[in-house]
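Example 5.3 — Type I restriction enzyme HsdR N-terminal domain-containing protein
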Amino acid sequence: MDFKDQVQQLAERIDKQKDVIATEEATKNAFIMPFIQALGYDIFNPFEVVPEMDCDLTKRGDKIDYAIKKDDSTIILIECKHCKQNLELHNTQLAKYYAASNARFGVLTNGIEYRFYADLDKKNIMDEKPFLIVNMLDLSDTDIEQLKKFHKSYYNESDILSTAQELQITIQIKDLLTRNFQEPGEEFTRYFVRCLNDWKSTAKQIEQYKPILKKSIASVINDIIAERLSVAIKNEEQKPDTQVIAEQDENIESTEKQSDGVVTTQEELDAYNVIRSILRKNIDASRIVYKDFKSYFVIGVESASYWWVCRLVFGTRKKTIYIPTDDYKSTDKIDIDTIDDIFKYADKIEACGQLALTTLENWRSKHSK
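Solution (predicted structure tokens):
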């Protein structure tokens, strides 16, 4: 079972058991220890996971619930609370333990929500705000990819710190935008006033613009939503017959809806670039496109969903390419070990590209009459 499957299975268990977990200790046993195990650490090995580790600066016997170690160094501190506890009330406790350790990451959790902290502002002083918050009852592929960076097999402190900096800034920007979209602040409004008035502004203008700006933002968001719905409806109405054929393979079945939880990996992009380099011998590169879904990554001509060349299903242990055969009536499966192995099947990919191109041209000819 790969990491994603383990995390999703744990999330399902949490959803079923959360209402019967009565104590903090039960939360640790049912939710948090399995989470640590999913990260690849042996909870029964004191060289990897240390329960109740001393984090005592005040000589009061302060202990962190769990410390994760790697190469004899503490890398992550985990402070646990009961699954019904509000974590907002407990971050100062974790900060105190953090200062007594050399760990660069601290986690505050109630087994359902995990808040990840670092010391980006000042070393060995825990930041006030977490750089990552993951809710196990509302997991996205993005969340799982971020959690994976803390896995024993992938852990790299400098990489995580770099990502943490970006995530922290992203959270701050999103919070700032959300607040101002809901109720425009003075400085936010001043920018628009100045843009529309030769870079001049007055207090009276700012007050006048605030409600107008709020309505304008809401209008723009509504227009974007309406436009996307319109495009989706139009595409559905124009769906060609080949789409039905393209959905036949049960192993890569999808709802064909792009989701906010979709994560496009570097491996998928690398594979796309290899396949595009093969196809561009006979097809203009600008016509070779891709679209990412939760269960697979598809490459096609002009419309990846309709006139597809191949579909990629890349797991942590297995990489598979599906190609259409017999005029989209069936599919073949190709297993590869590395991205470079794609070149071994260049002839088949070129043939699939020609099939997609021909199908597209036939469809256009039919619907142009």
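Remark. Residues 241-259 have pLDDT under 50 and may be disordered.
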